[in-house]
Amino acid sequence: MHYTHKNTQQKVFLSLSIWATTVAITGYLGLFTHIPANGIALLVILSLTILVVLYYRNPALNIYINNLPPRQLVIFHLWRIVAGFAFLYYGSQNLLPERFVINAGYGDLAVGFLVPIILLGKESIQKYIAFHLFGQLDFILAVGTGLTFTVLQVPLMENIATFPIVLIPLFGVPLTGASSIMAIDALLRQRRQIASR
């Protein structure tokens, strides 16, 4: 079991590293700016879908995620502080639509700054589920706004495909959305196991 867990962990880390590096290099070279805005939106949805399907269809990945300490799944969301400030910076430079910046930037900051508060208190499955549900609500608002503005071709939204901000929608967003779905699923399983004892 330990070998399988370690092996899965290495595969997850390697896969995420390759994905992030590919997005970073492709973004740096400006190649995403040649894709129509709807294509970027499709890549976001496709990436998120692939991650969720992998979680539910790959037993090793499912077991790996379900065995992670709930605190680790919360700590991951600290990255949203960086994302929030990045959105606010791009907004201050008039590089992204104001409504998108407000929804995505301040929402990410709220979730990111909530992490230490959640971690300070007593361990509780209910608390962790509530955190991930709150994170998902923010995620739905921000991604929903971004996808809507992209499809409607709202001016400035095309800048989301530029480097380095492109790392957020094409790496951070799918990973964050999928990780919250996985975390909620894992926590609900733990709660059912505790209740059945």
Low-pLDDT sequence parts:
none
Query: By helix and strand content, what is the structural category?
Result: mainly alpha
Beta-sheet strand percentage?
Answer: under 5%
Shape: globular
> Could you tell me the radius of gyration in angstroms?
17 Å
Query: Would you tell me the overall average pLDDT?
Result: 94
Number of domains: 1
| Counted beta strands | 0
Order of helices and strands: HHHHHHHH
Helicity level: over 70%
The N- to C-terminal Cα distance equals 23 Å
What can you tell me about this protein's structure?
This protein is mostly helical and 197 residues long. The protein is built from eight helices and no strands. The protein has helices at 2-28, 37-57, 59-66, 70-75, 79-92, 98-120, 125-151, 167-195. Helix 1 packs across helix 3, helix 2 (37-57) runs antiparallel to helix 7 (125-151) and helix 2 packs parallel to helix 8. It is globular and about 55 Å long. The two termini are 23 Å apart. 32% of the residues are buried.
Secondary-structure map:
Layout lengths: L1 H27 L8 H21 L1 H8 L3 H6 L3 H14 L5 H23 L4 H27 L15 H29 L2
Helix pairs in contact: 1-3, 2-3, 2-7, 2-8, 5-6, 6-7, 7-8
Short description:
The protein is mainly alpha-helical and 197 residues long.
What would the keywords be for this entry?
globular; mainly alpha; 0% strand; transmembrane; 197 residues; single chain
